[in-house]
Write a structure and sequence with these properties.
It is a single chain. This protein is an all-alpha fold. It is 82% helix and 0% strand. The chain has five helices and no strands. Helix 2 (26-56) crosses helix 3 (64-84). The radius of gyration is 17 Å and the shape is elongated.
Length: 136
């Protein structure tokens, strides 16, 4: 099961690495992939923080600078794993050699997880606004 999650994570890197990849250098492609993955992870964390706040019943504010620092920490961690250690770039090269059905399954599952993550954040933000009494 852990291997499947690792492959889905690396497939997300591959998707973002290759989108518009012909116009950019491999270094920029790796950077945009890390940035996109970190953004999705940050959205999941913010959505989770909203639900924790609502379940505990205590309103607290995450300062904008705190969210930015957390995002950059997530970026650095992802860059280290995917680019510095080479796990993402190696998988991106290996991805071409996977059989067609496996590639389609990994891409579909990875995109589905990313879309669910974004939808979770949007719904969490809406619920959080209602919790705080903000309408509109």
């Amino acid at each position: 099961m852990l291997h499947l999650f690792k492959e889905l994570y690396l497939t997300a890197f591959t998707i973002f690495f290759r989108v518009g990849g012909a116009e950019w250098t491999p270094t920029i492609n790796a950077g945009k992939a890390v940035t996109a993955i970190a953004l999705i992870e940050a959205l999941l964390l913010l959505g989770s923080a909203s639900w924790i706040e609502m379940l505990v019943g205590t309103a607290y504010r995450i300062p904008r600078w705190g969210a930015l620092i957390a995002y950059f920490v997530i970026c650095i961690a992802n860059h280290y794993l995917l680019v510095t250690l080479g796990h993402g770039t190696a998988f991106e090269r290996h991805f071409t050699s996977l059989n067609f059905a496996r590639k389609i399954l990994l891409i579909a599952a990875s995109v589905a997880i990313m879309l669910v993550g974004v939808a979770f954040f949007v719904y969490s933000a809406h619920a959080h606004r209602r919790f705080l009494g903000i309408h509109g």
